[in-house]
Request: fold
Amino acid sequence: MKNGSLIFGALLSVLVIIAAGVSFVWVPFDITQLSIPDKLQTPNKVHWLGTDHFGRDILSMIMIGARTSLAVALLAVGIGFSIGVPLGLAAAARKNSLIDEVIMRTNDLIFAFPSLVIAILITALFGAGAMNAIIAIGIFNIPVFARVSRGAALSLWQKEFILAARVSGKTDFLISAEHILPNIANLLIVQGTIQFSLGILAEAGLSYVGLGTQPPIPSWGRMLADAQTMVSFAPHLAIIPGTAIIVTVLGLNLMGDGLRDVLDPRVRKSRE
Amino acid sequence: MVSLCLASVIIFTIVEIAPGDPASFMLGINAQEDTIAALRAELGLDQDKLSRYFSWISGMLQGDFGTSYTYRSPISNMIADRIWVSLPLALYALVISTLIAFPAGIYAATQRGKVGDVAVMGATQFGIAIPNFWFAMILVVIFALKLRWFSAGGFVEWENGIFQSIKSLTLPAIALALPQASILSRVMRSALIETLSEDYIRTARAKGFGKRAVIWRHALRNALIPVLTIIGLQFSFLLAGAIIIEQVFFLPGLGRLVFQAITQRDLIVVESVVMLLVFAVITVNFIVDITYAIVDPRLRRRV
Reply:
């Protein structure tokens, strides 16, 4: 059962990644071509998932939208990871020092902000668009990664093999990079998967209110926003992009849970 | 307190460095240089950043949030109107979330590993994965457009009947509560499973108490600490999430106020509302800390 969630989650995630990947070389229909006579078709043999109010093929839009969602979420996690992890490691290496205090207090501060509100503030003030959405979501990933890596690294610093490395004259930086980081990698991968799925949801939310990915680039959140006025007579416009988001987020979450069990059974115990 | 000060500086800075001058925005692209300058002086935009920051903060401490650039009316009044939509919505959602999560989590914990547990946990995975604004749209289609039990959007003012107001907040609150209820039931389940494995639970069982009595009298109370933390955290998610949900249901709450203000470059409104939200979040977290002491006597001396 436990591995079941890993396999099922991985299957769903791979499905989305394939859809995004294939969209680079092939999509069923060209979505830059508007075809009003074909508008608002329900799923049929030609248009497997139907068409939208401009007659664009929804399957094609979902595939390209997958690309957008994955890219935005991945880059946002990348920002959080590449800034948060070094900060967390530095804080752990100098426990209770001024650096540690400053890093952790700043972390607490960012946590206190309602992330979505600030993301909306940033994208609204600096211009709506994918890039600012990535930055806004990324900023809130930093404290998450910093906290996870600090916590895990702190317990490692007590271990004998770290002491041995210290005795051999390695600097704190080298120890963090060569010994601590590989040992907390599992934990970071699991956290990364969870943050990735949160990133997908955040991107969808921002695009829905018009502050994320901008037209003509298709994005699931935007498709939902467009669908809102037509949902009473064309519910498939809302159901399909929504399902795409749910499949992706569900897949990533299940995969994260499964990975956690496989990679580190102890974590499961303390977390669950 | 320190975090509030820092938060105010950060918000002020973000808004300050953002492109777009409110005065030139309000007057349109054809405005003369001197009219813009005059309006800037009237709005106090010509003073230096530091003195503007301090007048904003000191005003806020006295309950004076300043005057909206576009509406020329006191922001505190605008917020006071809107908060009676957003705050009840967040609290309503919190109540729904707790009412779902407690039974679901307790049930799953007692059924650990059995079909009931797997079903509840599977459902929560879905609950977490569903974007709440999408769920809101689906609710509107089913309960407002098809069944016509609720209105599809808008808000009935409190003066026109509390029941009607609550009714107009019901669908938004359910949509808002779904992901939080899912997270909370998972936390409730884990916390309860953890306490159920403690020695004192075994002792209580050995003393002859039934399973149910042990859960109610011993386990639940001890499992409440992590649950309270999450409830506190959720409050901020609910306030923030309300911003998007208010868009779906056209509710005249703080969220819509922020969106309107952002599009009109009414920066002082944006600053003030965001600051208020941060203040609310920090205060709630503080209250949660105090509640720990009530639930757990061991922590009383430290708090």
About this structure: The two ends of chain A are 16 Å apart (CA to CA). Chain A is about 75% helix and 0% strand. Chain A touches chain B at residues 1, 105, 108-109, 112-118, 120-122, 124-127, 197, 201, 204-205, 208-209, 221, 224, 227-228, 231-232, 235, 238-239, 241-242, 245-246, 249-250, 253-254, 271-272 (CB under 8 Å). Confidence is low (pLDDT under 50) at residues 267-272 of chain A.
